[in-house]
Specification:
disordered C terminus, alpha/beta, 415 residues, SAM-dependent_MTases_sf, Rossmann fold, 7-stranded mixed sheet, 2 domains, 24% helix, single chain, 8-stranded mixed sheet
């Protein structure tokens, strides 16, 4: 079995373990599949002894096709705010200025549901979309400018040149992200730009966000570490933005000469301490759940939810997980002991519950408001690791947690 033997950011040898868990290969499986519906593999989160970069040292890149090839589509906009953010990104990128002589040729790597490509289509001459999930079909991208390539990542057949490459929430899934970064650099035309967006590993470390550690994510980039890796590939930042209250960040790059050995990024924090704070946060969540009634529903069939469910096992069983994504009907979250069916929220089902825990925590305020508008009067809690924003309907799951100070950090303040 292939393992990651060197730091993907600085190429150092040697790492310190933060935690080790067995995790399911898939986020969801068909409801009723039982124990034969999936298998568990080892996740070993380590911090590079040189630069502190967090990554899953045990990841086997050969699992990629099985993990992403035929599951439900991800990142499907289910709330107007999600589509609004895509439109705001297009404005931030100033797409029409990328090539003022003509509409730009764009490559999108890892499109998820394809919604961004469809919004970009009227502004572009061509959009080549690379997406490994075969659930996305050409019929779902009817615009003439869009060409879909169903291929594993990193893609082999990138076009020779493009004015803009967009790669959102992809690089963290790869065992060797430098390979894709170099491929992106090689296809940029003179004056071209690359927009790269990843989750912020600093959020995981600062807030002991154990639920954000799951099998799909191999890399947990800090901003400094990511910029270091980009310099190795020959990409220099033009501008950058924090996203979702510093949970993610996005950087617009231009092509420069690669730096094989740029200065090392600042060292990260204590991996052993992080593992201990993970343990404390999980214990706090289990304790809080034990104080609620026996019928606790979840909201959000996400990878974070799957990580949370397996961290709570076997002490807690959940009767249902709500999700607004139509393609998840008939699926279930699961641990080694039970399936949790995914259902669309309904007043009838909510009436059977003592409390709801929001596992799609990046949208916890909007979800809580919808639950209250739908008549749910019970407690609503969020699994987010940083203290929630000023939302009266959302309670924090980790009260009195020893995992870190619950005060509002710059992460929460930016939400």
């Amino acid at each position: 079995m292939a393992r990651i033997s060197r730091c993907p950011v600085c190429d150092s040898v040697g790492a310190v373990e933060a935690c080790r868990r067995d995790m399911p290969l898939h986020t969801v499986r068909r409801f009723g599949a039982g124990g034969g519906g999936d298998r568990y593999v080892e996740l070993r989160l380590v911090a590079c002894a040189g630069c502190g970069h967090l990554y899953n040292e045990a990841f086997d890149s050969e699992l990629g096709a099985e993990m992403y090839g035929d599951g439900p589509l991800t990142n499907v906009p289910v709330h107007p705010s999600m589509t609004d953010r895509l439109r705001q990104l297009i404005v931030w990128l100033d797409v029409e200025a990328v090539n003022r002589a003509a509409p730009p040729d764009i490559i999108e790597i890892g499109s998820g549901s394809g919604h961004l490509a469809r919004i970009l289509a009227p502004l572009s001459r061509s959009i080549t979309v690379f997406e490994p999930n075969r659930s996305l079909t050409a019929a779902m991208l009817p615009e003439p400018a869009i060409r879909l390539v169903s291929e594993e990542l990193p893609p082999v057949g990138l076009p020779e040149s493009a004015d803009l490459v967009i790669c959102r929430q992809v690089l963290e899934h790869l065992a060797d992200p430098l390979v894709l970064l170099r491929a992106i650099r090689s296809c940029l035309r003179e004056g071209g730009r690359a927009y790269l967006e990843v989750p912020n590993g600093g959020y995981v470390f600062e807030h002991a966000a154990f639920m954000d550690v799951h099998l799909p994510h191999v890399q947990y980039f800090s901003r400094d570490g990511f910029l270091h890796l980009a310099r190795r590939a020959g990409l220099a930042p033009v501008k950058e933005q924090w996203i979702k209250g510093r949970h993610d960040f996005g950087i617009l790059f231009t092509a420069v000469a690669p730096e094989p050995c740029p200065p090392s990024p600042p060292p990260g924090g204590d991996a052993v301490d992080l593992g201990q704070r993970f343990t404390a946060r999980i214990a706090a969540a289990r304790d809080r759940l034990s104080q609620l009634g026996p019928r606790i529903g979840l909201y959000g069939a996400t990878a974070q939810a799957q990580s949370f469910v397996n961290a709570m096992a076997p002490s807690r069983r959940f009767p249902v997980v709500f999700d607004d994504t139509p393609g998840l009907s008939g699926f279930a979250l699961f641990d080694r002991h039970h399936d949790i069916p995914v259902e669309a929220p309904s007043a009838e089902r909510l009436a059977t519950l003592d409390a709801v825990v929001v596992t799609a925590y990046l949208h916890d305020s909007a979800i809580a408001r919808n639950l209250r508008a739908g008549g749910f009067a019970g407690p609503i809690l969020t699994i987010r690791a940083d203290f929630p924003t000023d939302e009266p309907d959302v309670d924090w799951l980790y009260t009195d947690s020893a995992a870190g100070p619950p005060g509002r950090s710059e992460v929460a303040a930016d939400a």
